[in-house]
Amino acid sequence: MSDIEFTNIWENAAVTQRCVIIHGKCAKLPPGEGSVVVYFDQMRFPALRFPLADGFFKAFVPLEEGPNKLKFEIQVDKNTTYKKTLNVRYLPVKENPPVHFCLLVAKDSPFLFETMPYKKEREGNDLGTAVKKMRMAAYMMSAFTMEQMNRNGCGFRSFFPYSEEEEDTITNRDHLKKMTAHIHIVKVDKTKDEINDPNRAQQNHDATDNGALFGFASDALKAYGGPFATGDMVNAACIYLDTHYDQKLDLIEGHAALGGCVNNIRLAIFGGHGLWSWPTCIEDIPYACLDETLTDKKYVGNDTGGIGCAWEAMCISMGAFQHEVGHMLGCPHEPEGIMLRGYIYWQRAFTAIEGYSNVQKKVVCRHPMPQDEAIWYRGDIVRFLNHPSFSLPGDINRFVVNASRPLVFPLDDGIDARCPQGIYMVDIQVGEFSRAILEYNDLPSNLRLTKKDIQNALPNEWKNKPVHLHVHGKPMEQTDIEDLDKFISESHYDRPDLKFTQVLGNQNGDSIDVSLPAKRVSMVRVFSGNALDAVEFCFHDGTSVKFGKDGGSPHEIRIDDDDEFLGLCIMAGYWIDAAGVITKKFTSPVFGGTGGSRVDLVPPQGYRFAGLHGWAGSWMSGLCLGYSK
């Protein structure tokens, strides 16, 4: 047995991220603290030193594309040194959608961020320093997430920070040109005073415009162009450089912690008030994680009252920024972990030693082990496993084209859910948070769940209470059922003989309702222009029923005698864009506009297509399928 053992990675492991957190231990060491040194073959990077406690260490290791030979050494005294070599392959998945990290600057910005005097003297507080800190945050968050994914049995995968070949600053001993995380400097078309208006500060309970910073960021990214102007879905994680702590108001201005989606931009924003506490390079990580220097409100703010010293400032700011990146990647608030408030000990993921907490007035966990670290909740892990930014070449339905939101059909005793690209999770929520999840690694396109199935999945304390369901389809499509019992019992639109799906599109315009008799459909006419106007169902006996209003051009889809009409293929977004026909033998082209996502309106097994209910103005605004046994 070797002197040093690696506990979260193995020989010749293939990882997808440039930086990896390696856990190791040396059973021969006596209790106490020390350090481990990592040497890089062929001097790819300077040697790096990390704390060691009771024989255990966490090393934040940078890699270069391809094979990497790492040499770990622990020197006990001049006569005793323990050594181990580890070979790791770095194989980036370059075609995945990256996360773009951005610094947002006012149009009159002095390109400085607020800091403590000792930090200003040690490293500066200019734009170049901010770029270094943002770059390290990008790598720390991606490495943390990769460790969590691997720990949860999902492999060495994570999101990839967008990179370009430029001066690399992740070590403080050489700044060679390499492929490294690129930090976009994005100018906001607002002054510092406009950004730092107290009425736009999220933490100001009396603010009149506390959502403005999200809109400022979105507008600035669109004006910046580049990856944000292609129309493709893009991920942007942004920090406001000019954030200001107002001592008189005791308020952090130019700060909002928000994550969400605006048009094609998935966006996370945060203030730059914690930048001063972030490491500028890998050599700084142990220092930043253990810096017990007290914060001084003459210079920097105390965000949410959770910042007593420098390392706590790093946790509350970088960890909370990771929380907003989680929202950007599709995560809601969760019952535990990063998406609750589990980032207050963010630093534990990167060091085996914990410093004195000035908030807790004690050392909470002197030697944090993996089980003491911040985590991603299991539901978040499953979301990431099916997120295009986390994909691996062998994944099922890796890149989905024309994604469709899952369609959920109420049944007498549960639900039937459909998604052509596959359903990967049903999140069962009781009260404010998720209480159980059902995972589907084989990505079924059709899923039936009874109320008993759902209750059996819940812990006892949450059984027999109102249930909210979130049905997740590839890649990031989600359908929400706010109250399962009401969804099942009230889904008939005054037609107790039918059940209806959720509404596709919207409910604007005149209400329309048609029933389909139990006859063979021989032809369907779709009337459309740039959107759907109407659908006419023609039966073998020469009768017909029409759903919709006059308008559009007719498109006839004939159904042979040896075939059978099953339902409609709908393209829908805010309204109904187009429609086609689904039979046992074929799916027709859709006729209408080019927008929307595909949804197949085919009743669950054992039910028939019995009618449509909808709304129409100048064209079809919305509709839902009625079905019966």
Describe the structure.
The mean pLDDT is 94. It is elongated, with a radius of gyration of 28 Å. With 629 residues, the chain is an alpha+beta fold. The chain is built from nine helices and 37 strands. The chain has an eight-stranded mixed sheet with strand order 1-3-6-5-4-7-8-2, with helices on one face. It has a five-stranded mixed sheet with strand order 12-9-13-17-16.
What are the salient characteristics of this protein?
629 residues, five-stranded mixed sheet, alpha+beta, eight-stranded mixed sheet
Strand order of the largest sheet: 1-3-6-5-4-7-8-2
Q: Kindly, what is the distance between the CA atoms of the first and last residues, rounded to a whole number of angstroms? A: 67 Å
Indicate the low-confidence ranges by residue numbers. none
Number of helices: 9
> What percentage of the residues does DSSP assign to strands (E)?
35-45%
* Whole-angstrom Rg: 28 Å
Structural class by secondary-structure content: alpha+beta
Mean pLDDT: 94
Shape: elongated
Helical residues, percent: 10-25%
Query: Total number of β-strand segments?
Result: 37
Main sheet record: 8 strands, mixed
Note the topology.
Elements: E1 5-6, E2 13-15, E3 19-25, E4 33-40, E5 48-53, E6 56-62, E7 66-77, E8 80-90, E9 99-106, H1 117-123, H2 127-151, E10 163-167, E11 177-181, E12 183-188, H3 192-195, H4 212-224, E13 234-240, E14 244-246, E15 251-253, E16 258-262, E17 265-271, H5 285-290, H6 310-328, H7 378-385, E18 407-410, E19 414-418, E20 423-430, E21 433-439, E22 446-450, H8 451-457, E23 468-473, E24 477-481, H9 484-489, E25 499-500, E26 504-505, E27 510-515, E28 521-528, E29 532-539, E30 544-548, E31 553-558, E32 565-572, E33 576-583, E34 591-592, E35 597-601, E36 608-616, E37 620-628
Parallel strand pairs: 2-8, 9-12, 9-13, 13-17
Antiparallel strand pairs: 1-3, 3-6, 4-5, 4-7, 5-6, 7-8, 10-11, 14-15, 16-17, 18-19, 19-22, 20-21, 20-23, 23-24, 25-37, 26-37, 27-36, 28-29, 28-31, 29-30, 32-33, 32-35, 33-34, 36-37
